[in-house]
Specification:
By secondary structure, the chain is of the alpha/beta class. It is built from seven helices and twelve strands. A five-stranded parallel β-sheet has the order 9-10-11-5-12, with helices on both faces. The radius of gyration is 18 Å and the shape is globular.
């Protein structure tokens, strides 16, 4: 199976902590879970991978996505999605226009009617076509979580970063949205890197990396 995300080694400074992380390789829809106590730098590492330039993070080794080094690429060029605890939908836009905002370049060149038909089809796949014209404020927590993931997938990411994405959901809904999220990533064959403090969120097949095991 083709490697989608990898580093051979990673010597990285996260604030006052330095780590020398072992080789990592993700194929298909593999999931890597970053472990470690509060302040270990898990979220900082995620945002650095995303391309968010942070003065307290420095790295001496290359990270590869689809075989290409990404360290010097912009956020847009990396094509990495991010899901966080708060679903950051644009409140002034409808659900449909929130999704339209995420369309990749090849879809932006198409006619608006074609774009709308495609987006309605994607909404139908998650049984939310009836909410196309709804405002984000009209959505429940679970509905907003589904729209947030769909918007991220519509952008056709090569890698998905999950930073406590289920933490704000009530226990009844949490397991349902969690299972649905990983099913969607598996179907799209998008690997992910996740930070969570809830062991119940970790897929049975996930790889785990405890940063504190590699603190220099």
């Amino acid at each position: 199976m083709i490697t989608k995300f990898a580093w051979q080694q990673l010597a990285i400074q996260l604030g006052m902590r330095e780590y020398r992380l072992p080789p990592i390789e993700l194929t298909g829809s593999d999931c890597l879970v970053l472990m470690g106590g509060s302040g270990a730098g898990k979220s900082s590492l995620l945002h650095w991978l995303l391309g968010d330039k942070q003065t307290h993070v420095s790295c001496r080794d290359e990270v590869y996505l689809n075989g290409e080094p990404i360290n010097d690429k912009s956020i847009q060029a990396r094509r990495i999605g991010l899901l966080m605890q708060d679903v950051l939908l644009f409140e002034h836009l409808s659900v449909l226009d929130n999704l339209r905002f995420a369309l990749p370049h090849r879809w932006r060149r198409k006619k608006p009617a074609e774009q709308q038909a495609y987006l309605l089809e994607r909404l139908s796949q998650i049984e939310m076509a009836e909410f196309a014209n709804a405002a984000p404020a009209q959505l429940s927590g679970g509905q907003a979580a589904r729209i947030g993931l769909l918007r991220a997938l519509i952008a056709e990411p090569l890698l998905m970063l999950l930073d406590e994405p289920f933490a704000a959901l009530d226990p009844r809904l949490r397991s349902k949205i969690r299972d649905w999220t990983f099913a969607q990533l598996q179907q799209a064959e998008v690997p992910c890197i996740m930070v969570t403090h809830d062991l119940g969120d970790i897929p049975a097949t996930a790889k785990q990396l405890n940063l504190e095991d590699y603190h220099v």
